[in-house]
Design a protein that fits this description.
single chain, alpha/beta, 10 helices, globular
């Protein structure tokens, strides 16, 4: 059972008694899904970022996920300092103005420390704290941590993904990373797990993993799912990246029904409506 007190995000608690929505803020020039509109020259366009963040909060987001490095295969790598220069001002600006949990999408230990000092509440690491110094930085931060599964590294992960049983292997990996975190001093009420849709997985792997979400949710840690505008939707529907909302909402609905706690999305208001409908139906079923 997911902890009744919710997720400990530094000084905040994120109530997970119903599925929550995490809005995506990409501070990169080359995002696959939003074309770099929040980025100019070498840094964030803070006016636009804040407008987008306010709209997401008004739309029902409980968390905003700020990222400064694209994980898309073929994306240009950025230095650790560049990533900090992109993300830190955004964390500071949002923390000063909005009452919301701020997540930082990073594997960079120094950014984890700086973001925690600036008011972030969650570390979303697609590498599950495997980079040097990340485990210690996350532990010291007191923030919540999202541990995501990825086979390989972003540049090459889609070349030859291979699994015997994708759900079992992903679950085993996430449980092993959670155990490493707990041994290092990151308590269970700070942990979220994420199967990492599209990260070193074929369409068949992604669909099998989706069918296994109920099993993953039964592991006892809150589960986060990110499928918004991803290629698995394009592969099934034939739609280009900006025409994948309906596919994304169908998956968000299925995920919530399977017991997922947080859905990561570009389309916050629509996703919140979908999740409210799931909650309304499921609440009725328990009365
Ligand atoms: C940064 N990022 C891109 N896709 C993601 C996903 O599916 N999950 C998480 N946690 N982060 C993601």
């Amino acid at each position: 059972m997911v902890t009744a007190q919710g997720l400990r995000c530094g000084a905040r608690r994120l109530d997970l008694s119903a599925p929550r929505v995490m809005g995506i803020l990409n501070i990169t020039p080359d995002s696959f899904s939003d074309g770099g509109s929040l980025f100019a020259g070498a840094g964030p366009r803070l006016d636009r970022v804040l407008r987008r963040a306010e709209a997401m909060l008004a739309g029902g987001a409980a968390v905003l996920d700020v990222g400064g490095e694209s994980t898309r295969p073929g994306a240009a790598p950025v230095s650790e300092q560049e990533e900090i220069d992109r993300v830190a001002p955004v964390v500071a600006a949002i923390a000063a103005r909005l009452d919301i949990v701020i997540s930082v999408d990073t594997s960079n230990a120094q950014l984890m420390r700086e973001a925690a000092a600036l008011g972030a509440g969650l570390i979303n690491d697609v590498r599950s704290l495997r980079r040097e110094g990340a485990l210690e930085a996350a532990r010291d931060s007191g923030l919540a941590v999202c541990l995501m599964h990825m086979q390989g590294e972003p540049g090459t992960m889609q070349q030859t993904p291979f699994y015997t049983d994708v759900t079992v292997e992903v679950s085993d990996y996430l449980l092993a990373r959670a155990a490493v975190c707990e041994r290092a001093g990151i308590a269970r009420d700070r942990l979220v797990i994420d199967p990492g849709f599209g990260f070193g997985k074929t369409l068949a792997h992604n669909l099998a993993l989706f069918r296994g979400l109920r099993e993953l949710a039964a592991l006892g840690l809150p589960v986060l799912v990110g499928v918004s505008r991803k290629s698995m939707i394009g592969q099934v529907t034939g739609r280009p990246v900006h025409r994948r909302l309906a596919g994304g909402l169908a998956l968000a609905t299925l995920a919530a029904d399977a017991g997922v706690s947080i859905v990561r999305t570009h389309d916050v208001a629509a996703c919140c409506d979908a999740l409210k409908m799931v909650a309304a139906v499921n609440e009725g079923a328990t009365r």
